[in-house]
């Protein structure tokens, strides 16, 4: 059995948005790129929401750094689904993510899925969009739906929530 590889973060200082997912998919591990599963709607949603000027391909994920967008995950280990992530992995990942955010100082941290933010913040009842208080001072926490094909929300509903990001960036 071959071992799945972690995928690299794409983070620089002072990003407009740092997107944080649960963890890489098997497909992302195989390709070395974020949101690479063909059923994941991340790249389509970014374009439809006006965050990117075109639909990027997962292999272009590092190019988004030039646009002010970065990528990381709360847990680096690839799995078939988030249910395979252990409590210890979340605990360690939460602390590592706090450090990444503290050092890189993005304007907005966009959590791709309520469950990601619940694991990071310890808060259970979370609204979509900008959060009242951020976990790491100096950034805004923004919670958006997961873009996984398993999510039952319509793509237009998800896109509407993501479309708040460019408006929020313009106010900062």
TrEMBL record:
One Pfam family per UniProt: UDG
Keyword Hydrolase attributed: yes
Protein name according to UniProt: Mismatch-specific thymine-DNA glycosylate (Mug) family protein
One example of a Gene Ontology biological process annotation: base-excision repair, AP site formation
Uracil-DNA glycosylase-like domain sequence ranges: 14-157
EC number annotated for this UniProt entry: 3.2.2.-, 3.2.2.28
InterPro entries: MUG/TDG, Uracil-DNA_glycosylase-like, Uracil-DNA_glycosylase-like_sf
Signal peptide annotation: none
GO terms of molecular function: pyrimidine-specific mismatch base pair DNA N-glycosylase activity; uracil DNA N-glycosylase activity
Organism (species): Lederbergia lenta
Keywords: DNA damage, DNA repair, Glycosidase, Hydrolase
Enzyme class: hydrolase
KW Nucleotide-binding (keyword) present: no
């Amino acid at each position: 059995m071959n071992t799945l590889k972690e995928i690299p973060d794409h983070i620089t200082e002072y990003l407009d948005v740092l997107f944080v997912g649960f963890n890489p998919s098997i497909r992302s591990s195989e390709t070395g790129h974020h949101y690479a599963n063909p059923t994941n709607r991340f790249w389509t949603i970014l374009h439809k929401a006006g965050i990117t000027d075109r639909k990027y391909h997962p292999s272009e994920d590092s190019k988004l750094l030039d646009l002010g967008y970065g990528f990381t995950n709360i847990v680096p280990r690839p799995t078939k689904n988030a249910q395979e992530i252990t409590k210890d992995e979340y605990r360690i990942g939460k602390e590592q993510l706090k450090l990444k955010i503290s050092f890189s100082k993005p304007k907005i941290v966009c959590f791709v899925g309520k469950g990601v933010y619940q694991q990071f913040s310890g808060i259970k009842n979370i609204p979509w969009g900008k959060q009242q208080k951020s976990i790491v001072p100096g950034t805004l926490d923004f919670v958006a739906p997961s873009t996984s094909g398993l999510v039952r929300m319509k793509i237009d509903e998800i896109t509407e929530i993501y479309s708040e990001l460019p408006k929020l960036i313009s106010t900062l």
